[in-house]
Amino acid sequence: MNTEEIEFLAEQEEVTIIPKFTDSRVVHLISGDIGPFRAGIPCVVPIWVAKTLRKKHKCKIVAPEWMELDLLEQKLEEEKSSRFFTPMPSDHYMGIAHLLLSDDSDIEHADRLRLTIKNIWDVRVAKARASADTFLKGGGRHAGIDHLTQLEICNLRPLLLDALDTKHQLSVPMENMSALNTSAASGSLSESFSSASTPRRSQ
Amino acid sequence: MSLFRKRNHYFSLTDVLSSQERVPITFQVAVGYLGELDASAEGNILAAGTTLELPYWLVTSLYQEDGVGIDLPKQYKQAWRDILAADAKVVNLQRLCKYFYEFGKLVSLIRVRDHQDIIDLLIQTLVDRHRELTNWAVHAIKQENEFFEKLDDIEQELSRRATSAELNLSNWLQSDCGQIRKAEMVQAHDRLVSSSRTFNT
Amino acid sequence: MWGDKAIELIKELERSSELFPPFDDDKVRLILEECRVLNQFIEDAMSSTFDPETNNYLAGVKARTAALERNKRCLLAYQWNRLQTLKKMRWEFGSILPPEIKANMSETEVQWCTKYSKALANYMKNIGGRNGLNLMLDMQPPKDLYIEVRCLKEYGKLELDSGEVFNLSENSQHYMPRSQVENLIRLGVLEHINWS
């Protein structure tokens, strides 16, 4: 999955808006109902609806609860001091921040919020890179990457997952080695290979 | 599909190319009907004591014959093992063997008694170079290519992927996504066509 | 040596700077000729009398079998990888490929493309209900139904499904339904501007 697609998923997350119009009709969608809207009364909609209405100046977007400076700065400290990845307030924290904290955002301190969230991201990504390195060196067979979000994994895939996979593939016996041009040859080779590994196992 | 598997299957170009790398093979006895393999052979008989460097795919068909022995390609021998163990980062793998890891894996399959040593060497080398690779790939966007050119083929592909993931992310951070762009191949094609036009005129 | 031409064919494909290099008929023919010679040797050996001292053809046959298989693999890999490119091009250029690319296709590749194109069109017609589903649309998640575009080259008239007609002349700007102009943007006729 690429960044655009993950942002699309983030757009499905819900956010509170304060509509500037009244419409008592409910829109029935496969993913759920939207509305009714009453001017000045907060209501919850998917982010993509909020963005569309916002563009037409038909609502104000309210920041999600977790999007608050003190809370995020605390989160940043926690992330810095922990060896592991700490759980994020939202699986799409980066995507939502990117969607809601544009330059003309309704949310106060958008700049500082954006910076803090980017700092959290940087700490996490650096941590992931460092731990990939330790992990590769340590020769463990599995690593805990709990609480990593989709976007982080997408960004880290080549250096973290592909590199680990390459290492793994080098060390496992190849079953259907394609480089062997014939099926007959692959038979004789895998035989010689297994005869080599058997005594090692019995040692 | 994982990168390694994508590069290693029957139709894959990288796999065809890595199995073309050469392995030293010695014929202790004379072998008939193989004279074509040795330019200095007389007639069609390969003389006893001939040593040749043949492509991997051909070696696999002969190495189990009586009187035939294979040796390790130099990059997996002790001398290079020592160099790589000392400081893997500085070695120019691209020049040493373009498919260092993948060919190494292949060689390990036909050199049973060196199997584990080769695999250990490959893994240690990969691990030792990984941090450099990460550093380079993350900051590569505007840097020189000197480091990149020292990488083996799969390392290059890894760093290309990493760099493009990084670029993708920074583009996304800087501007909203959602712009429809010209398709990549169309773009490449237009570039080629326009450059050939300037060339012709 | 055996397999040399086959590996040249593969290297040629791997190193080519072209999007789709010309089909190398000559080299393919040379490889097939090599295969014929290899096969002839094997057939002759099989019909001769084996003698461990004077007529030991075992190693010779094994090596030539490997070479035959190798040539076969290289030819298949060559063709397979070219077909992958063609397949991808169907998704990027649409059903009409530029003449420069068409000129580099072999006759069977042209046939394959037509068949692939037909199969794909047929599939898209038969999924997603009565009107089918155009899989070429929304290659990335859409943001808006209408978008603003600038025309990069003379294209002429474009009639929308609604019957509305736009005159796409160079540098003109239009506000149009995304679904009807996406392919023109991907082909480089239009440019998507002022997105957000």
Automatic annotation (TrEMBL), chain A:
Residues 66-161 form the GINS subunit domain. CDD domains: GINS_A_psf2, GINS_B_Psf2. Coiled coil: none annotated. It is found in: Nucleus. Keywords: DNA replication, Nucleus. Pfam families: PSF2_N, Sld5. Its main location: nucleus. Residues 3-62 form the DNA replication complex GINS protein PSF2 N-terminal domain. InterPro entries: GINS_A (IPR021151), GINS_bundle-like_dom_sf (IPR036224), GINS_Psf2 (IPR007257), PSF2_N (IPR056784). Belongs to the GINS2/PSF2 family. Component of the GINS complex. This is DNA replication complex GINS protein PSF2.
Automatic annotation (TrEMBL), chain B:
Its main location: nucleus. Residues 77-173 form the GINS subunit domain. It holds the Pfam family Sld5. It comes from the Eukaryota. It is found in: Nucleus. Keywords: DNA replication, Nucleus. Residues 11-63 form the DNA replication complex GINS protein PSF3 N-terminal domain. The keyword Nucleus applies. Component of the GINS complex. Belongs to the GINS3/PSF3 family. Required for correct functioning of the GINS complex, a complex that plays an essential role in the initiation of DNA replication, and progression of DNA replication forks. GINS complex is a core component of CDC45-MCM-GINS (CMG) helicase, the molecular machine that unwinds template DNA during replication, and around which the replisome is built. This is DNA replication complex GINS protein PSF3. The lineage of its organism: Eukaryota, Metazoa, Ecdysozoa, Arthropoda, Hexapoda.
From TrEMBL, chain C:
Residues 143-193 form the DNA replication complex GINS protein PSF1 C-terminal domain. Pfam families: PSF1_C, Sld5. It is found in: Nucleus. The keyword Iron does not apply. Residues 37-128 form the GINS subunit domain. It comes from the Eukaryota. InterPro entries: GINS_A, GINS_bundle-like_dom_sf, GINS_Psf1, PSF1_C. Keywords: DNA replication, Nucleus. Required for correct functioning of the GINS complex, a complex that plays an essential role in the initiation of DNA replication, and progression of DNA replication forks. GINS complex seems to bind preferentially to single-stranded DNA. Component of the GINS complex. Belongs to the GINS1/PSF1 family. This is DNA replication complex GINS protein PSF1. It comes from Nesidiocoris tenuis.
